[in-house]
């Protein structure tokens, strides 16, 4: 380490260390930003995909219940049909509170129109079964969208984890460089502070 003996410019060393500290701080801020983004991804996976999928399952159950009542042909269960339709309307409102993609919004709009058509056809039982099957098909498509979007979120979370690992490795490398520089300065200062002994005087 001969170069350590040539260190004289304290300003240059100070500037170098300051630069390294700034890089570490910037890296740390970037890690925090990545952590916040990861939290958003996890929140979206829960709120917009898992919860949305649970709503789809509830809607499917309600539609199947309506289908069974329609097949039974019992007039006295008309009030029960309206009860199921009201539950569907409430679930629809809950579903709309999740974050919908453009494709998802289009299919859900169709589904809502179909549930309204089923409600209007209840008194005469007119085309209710056919519309009900179309509504179930839309629910299947919506469920497939949940899977696709969840896969995208998982992929994004993997990218964030990889980025975090890279930032951590960079921060460790910068800290190692700082330690080496400080050790070199200390070693150089100790070496330069040694005063050579004068040769003994010969009589």
Commentary on this structure:
By secondary structure, the chain is mainly alpha-helical. It has a single domain (23-180), classed as Four Helix Bundle (Hemerythrin (Met), subunit A) (Up-down Bundle), CATH 1.20.120. It is built from 4 helices and no strands. The protein is rod-shaped. The model is unreliable at 1-5 (pLDDT under 50).
* CATH fold description: Four Helix Bundle (Hemerythrin (Met), subunit A)
The CATH class turns out to be Mainly Alpha
**Strand-and-helix sequence, N→C?**
HHHH
Q: Tell me the major beta sheet.
A: none
Low-confidence stretches: 1-5
Radius of gyration using CA atoms only? 35 Å
Instruction: Tell me which CATH architecture applies here.
Output: Up-down Bundle
> How far is it from the N-terminal to the C-terminal residue, by CA?
40 Å
- How many strands? 0
- Overall form: rod-shaped
The helix fraction, in percent, is over 70%
Q: How many domains in all?
A: 1
Q: DSSP strand (E) fraction?
A: under 5%
Helical region count? 4
Structural class: mainly alpha
Mean pLDDT: 74
Blueprint of the fold:
Layout: H1 10-72, H2 78-96, H3 102-121, H4 128-193
Helix pairs in contact: 1-2, 1-4, 3-4
Task: Please name the defining characteristics of this protein.
203 residues, rod-shaped, disordered N terminus
């Amino acid at each position: 380490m001969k170069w350590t003996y040539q260190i004289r410019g304290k300003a240059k060393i100070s500037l170098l260390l300051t630069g390294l500290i700034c890089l570490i701080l910037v890296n740390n801020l970037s890690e925090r930003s990545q952590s916040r983004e990861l939290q958003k991804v996890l929140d979206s996976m829960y709120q917009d995909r898992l919860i949305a999928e649970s709503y789809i399952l509830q809607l499917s159950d309600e539609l199947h219940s309506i289908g069974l009542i329609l097949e039974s042909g019992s007039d006295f269960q008309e009030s029960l049909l309206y009860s199921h339709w009201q539950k569907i309307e409430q679930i629809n409102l809950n579903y709309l509170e999740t974050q919908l993609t453009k494709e998802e919004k289009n299919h859900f709009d169709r589904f809502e129109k179909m549930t309204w058509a089923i409600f209007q056809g209840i008194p005469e039982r007119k085309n209710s079964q056919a519309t009900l099957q179309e509504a179930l098909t839309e629910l299947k498509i919506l469920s497939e969208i949940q899977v696709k979007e969840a896969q995208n979120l998982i992929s994004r979370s993997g990218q964030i984890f990889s980025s975090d690992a890279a930032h951590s490795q960079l921060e460790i490398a910068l800290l190692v460089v700082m330690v080496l520089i400080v050790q070199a300065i200390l070693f150089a200062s100790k070496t330069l502070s040694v005063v050579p002994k004068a040769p003994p005087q010969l009589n």
